Amino acid sequence: GAISSVGNGCVLYMAYKRKTKLKPPEIMTVNLAICDFGMSVGGKPLFIISCFSHRWPFGWEGCRLYGCTGFLFGCGSLTTMTVISLDRYLKICHLEYGTWLQRHHAFMCLVFIWLYAVFWAAMPLIGWGNYAPEPFGTSCTLDWRMAQASVLGQSFVMTIMLFCLLLPSALIIFSYVKIINKVRASTKEVAHFDTRIQNHHALEIKLTKVAMLICTGFLFAWIPYAVVSVWSAFGKPDSVPLYFSVVPTMLTKSAAMYNPIIYQVIDCKLCEKLGCFKLLQKRRSLPPSR
């Protein structure tokens, strides 16, 4: 919680300092940091307190609020990464469409992302689905066991799995498979162009690698949780071992921690802004000490 709050806070601070110069992919990255920061600040303190209490001490309404905010920011993160992957797909594979994507298109995507996340997070609050404590009792999430209680619960679980996990994951995988194939085919072609085009191509590939790492990390964190959730929804009651429910939950909470590491440490632009390269060049230009 501390690492993710500080890391995503640094990303948001850097974005605020250069808010007028942010490019569309960077705007999406900032939105991802907002989701991770909200998940860290809004949820992790309650989870830590409940762990030390060995129970959920914040009541039923607190459980519903915790589950709603966690699902809201989680759905927002995955939807943001879907938009990022589609942006990379258009920029690399369909240049005729990728070139007209501007800042106002990015802000339109932000509106869609948050409306999409709010819609699905609000459904359990108005009666379709519900939020409930997890099996280990110190955290709250979607009530997956509703699938065993009624047809309405089954429809909710299957719809959530389709539109909030399977469909976004499929779009992400499709985008990066296409990108990898395109990059392999175009590497030799770009070598015949001038230096400016080569540099632009290298920058797009670099942004794509960062996006791929973020999306891969997110799927790695959430797929085990999705498997356990489906197991809880459609398996026998209490058939999920306790450790099998705790570990995936902790894994999902770790995604907010390593995302800022990926798009700060790997992206060398941050190092340039901090003056690391200038300092290194000065050191190289100094005469060797005797």
UniProtKB/TrEMBL annotation:
Q: Which residues does the UniProt record annotate as the domain G-protein coupled receptors family 1 profile?
A: 7-263
Parts of the chain that traverse the membrane:
64-86, 107-131, 151-177, 210-234
Q: Tell me the Gene Ontology biological-process terms attached to this UniProt entry.
A: absorption of visible light; phototransduction, UV; visual perception
Q: Where in or outside the cell?
A: Cell membrane
Which Pfam families is this protein grouped with? 7tm_1 (PF00001)
| GO CC term, one of those recorded | plasma membrane
Membrane topology of the entry: Multi-pass membrane protein
Q: Which UniProt keywords apply?
A: Cell membrane, Disulfide bond, G-protein coupled receptor, Glycoprotein, Lipoprotein, Membrane, Palmitate, Receptor, Sensory transduction, Transducer, Transmembrane, Transmembrane helix, Vision
Give the signal sequence positions: none
Domain of life the protein comes from:
Eukaryota
A GO molecular-function descriptor:
all-trans retinal binding
Does this entry carry the keyword Cell membrane?
Answer: yes
Which family is it part of?
Belongs to the G-protein coupled receptor 1 family.
What is the name of the protein in this document?
Answer: Opsin-5
Which organism is the protein's source? Latimeria chalumnae
Q: Which gene encodes it?
A: OPN5
